[in-house]
Amino acid sequence: MGCKIETVCASRGMPTLPDRLVDRRVDAGDSLRDLERFFNREVLAAAMRDAGMELLEGEAENVHRLLTDEDVSDAARTEARDRLRRAGVDVDAVRDDFVTYGTVRTHLRECAGVETGRESSVDAASVRDTAFGLFGRAEAITEREVSRLAETESFDAGDVTVSLTARVTCETCGEEYGLLRLLDRGGCGCRRED
């Protein structure tokens, strides 16, 4: 018996998906998290098609987001699950077939012989994407929790909106910048002045 990825692909009739994971890692440089999302969306899309659902472009991706993202409301998640169930999709079985990035890493290393280590490369765009992705997630979770707290009798607040900002101070020159401004300018410039 193979790894979970091979088992899921065999049971769902997706024989080319393991090779597509390898291609996306080796040729496109997808991260393990990207591959996790890609695999899970493909599993969901296969289940939806098997149930006779006609998929519009991006629909499986959106339904996957509704089922798995932490910033999705309970009502939206329940609505997505109910829609799938009405169409004949066994949502729990699909969720059981979802994998983690660790499972993807194990598959790539042990089944496909692909090295999963990455050389550390960083640029302003990757820092921006990572930081603002984290801010967005933190904002959504904080807003949800404060809204829940506002529904209790011990906390008084109306509708709330949360926004996070990051300030960066260069300890060498003492200048302070908003993160986006610092990234857009290419740094504070104090090393260039030396």
Question: If you had to describe this structure to a student in words, what would you say it looks like?
Answer:
Strand 1 (167-169) and strand 2 (176-178) form a beta hairpin. The mean pLDDT is 86. It is flat, with a radius of gyration of 22 Å. Helix 2 (17-26) runs antiparallel to helix 3. With 194 residues, the protein is mainly α. It is built from nine helices and two strands. The protein starts with a helix and ends in a 9-residue tail after the last helix. The chain has a two-stranded antiparallel sheet.
Q: Could you tell me how far the N terminus lies from the C terminus, measured between alpha carbons in angstroms? A: 62 Å
Largest sheet entry: 2 strands, antiparallel
**Strand ordering within the main sheet:** 1-2
Quaternary organisation of the protein chains: single chain
Number of helices: 9
Low-pLDDT segments, ≥5 res = none
Query: How many strands in all?
Result: 2
Mean pLDDT equals 86
